[in-house]
Specification:
Blueprint (H helix, E strand, L loop, with lengths): L3 E6 L3 H12 L4 E4 L11 E4 L2 E4 L6 E3 L2 H10 L10 E4 L2 E4 L4 H7 L6 H19 L7 H9 L1 H16 L29 E3 L5 H8 L4 E3 L16 E6 L3 H4 L9 E11 L9 E4 L8 E4 L8 H5 L3 E10 L8 E2 L3 H15 L4 E3 L2 H4 L5 H9 L7
Helix pairs in contact: 1-12, 4-5, 5-6
């Protein structure tokens, strides 16, 4: 008789939520993770009394009340609202693009009609240069969406830092649309619900995995669990898709992120959780001040120090943590071939960003798992 119904490789949001739902259905589950802690990329490290998002800013947002109610049944979420700021050579702009942005960009613009007219003028200029030709690259696409002023200060260099390539060399599809809001609203998301778990994401993961067997520091591919059929009826795999098949068809490309985290001897370093640096003057793409995710008002100053992380977008090489799939034609075609192999793997569920080679926000990951029905094994 097998010991477990499911062996889950990876304790990120997909793996942890799957484990929770399986346990609720009366299944016996084992979760393994190669890192020394649970939680995948939402793991928080406590420094100076602050929950530091070790793998970058994670802001939970959704329009799905069932998903919101579910996560709040595990741990209560706070009222954090994502309002990032862009710094272009010392000029500060609100994001997403809204009336505050446009008035800062063009001081003679005060009304939505004036802003719309200014953007339309610049869009027309870009479209005239193209003639009848469709945009061939990201630069042309962005200019046709928002015009030269916003593109040059808030998109061009920031995007080049993100992707490590000139905007003229990037495909147009990367920017299919850009949010332009004719209101004075700095809330980045349109979703009805958003926030951060009170006490950090580790509390969410701990709640999801409560009472479930978990083992850390276990590399699936270099452990007894590689012969998982001796241990469990089914496998839930959340690691990199190509790695599962030992790169038999070739390697998928990823972008990854490196962080430089430090303690600052001040209670308030930048006044905002996220500040994007949109010029090449700074090598990093953004600076995260973690306390602002969970501390508000006087709480900020009651904590005498702060922790910031500079975020650098770099090319992935072996041994790094893969972050973002590069969904260009080559990689999409290769991923499709790997998906065909995955469909033939009996008893294996491939879930999450890495295993599906698809960018996900957090809420859709949970929504996908909640939709799974757990049949009798």
């Amino acid at each position: 008789m097998m010991k477990y119904d499911y062996l889950i490789v990876g304790s990120g949001l997909y793996g942890a939520t799957f484990a929770y739902k399986a346990k609720q259905a009366g299944k016996k589950v084992l979760v393994i993770d190669k890192r020394p802690y649970l939680g995948g990329n939402v793991y928080c490290e406590q420094i100076e009394g602050i929950n530091v998002h070790k793998y970058g800013a994670h802001i939970f947002h959704t329009n799905n009340k069932d998903v919101w109610d579910f996560v709040n049944s595990i741990v209560e979420f706070n009222r954090y609202t994502n309002c990032p700021v862009a710094n272009y050579k010392g000029e500060l702009y609100n994001l997403p693009f809204n009336m505050n942005t446009f008035n800062r960009m063009w001081p003679d613009v005060f009304t939505p009609i004036q802003a719309q007219n200014r953007i339309e003028e610049q869009k027309a200029e870009a479209l005239a240069k193209l003639g009848d030709q469709a945009p061939q690259n990201l630069e042309e696409q962005a200019l046709c969406l928002v015009g030269k002023d916003i593109f040059n200060k808030l998109i061009k260099e920031y995007t080049e830092k993100q992707w490590g390539r000139d905007c003229k060399e990037l495909p147009a599809f990367i920017i299919k649309r850009l949010p332009v809001r004719m209101v004075f609203d700095n809330n980045y998301f349109n979703d009805k619900y958003q926030g951060i778990p009170i006490g950090g994401y580790n509390k969410l993961i701990a709640g999801l995995l409560k009472g479930i067997d978990c083992k850390t520091n276990v590399d699936f591919f270099n452990s007894e669990y590689l012969d998982w059929r001796n241990i469990a009826h089914k496998l839930v795999y959340t690691g990199a898709l190509d790695e599962y098949f030992n790169y038999s068809l070739g390697k998928l490309d990823w972008r990854t992120v490196r962080f430089k985290t430090r303690i600052e001897n001040t209670p308030n370093y930048q006044g905002n959780a996220v500040v994007n640096y949109t010029s090449h003057n700074e090598p990093y793409t953004r600076v995260i001040e973690h306390k602002h995710f969970e501390m508000f008002g006087q709480e900020v100053y009651d904590c005498p120090k702060t922790v910031i992380s500079e975020e650098y977008s770099i090319n992935y090489t072996d041994g790094m943590e893969p972050y973002y799939p590069i969904n260009d034609d080559r990689n999409n075609a290769l991923a499709r071939e790997y998906h065909k192999l995955a469909e033939k793997e009996k008893g294996v569920i491939f879930g999450g960003r890495l295993a599906q080679y698809k960018y996900y926000d957090m809420a859709p990951i949970i929504e996908e798992v909640l939709s799974i029905e757990f049949p009798h094994l």
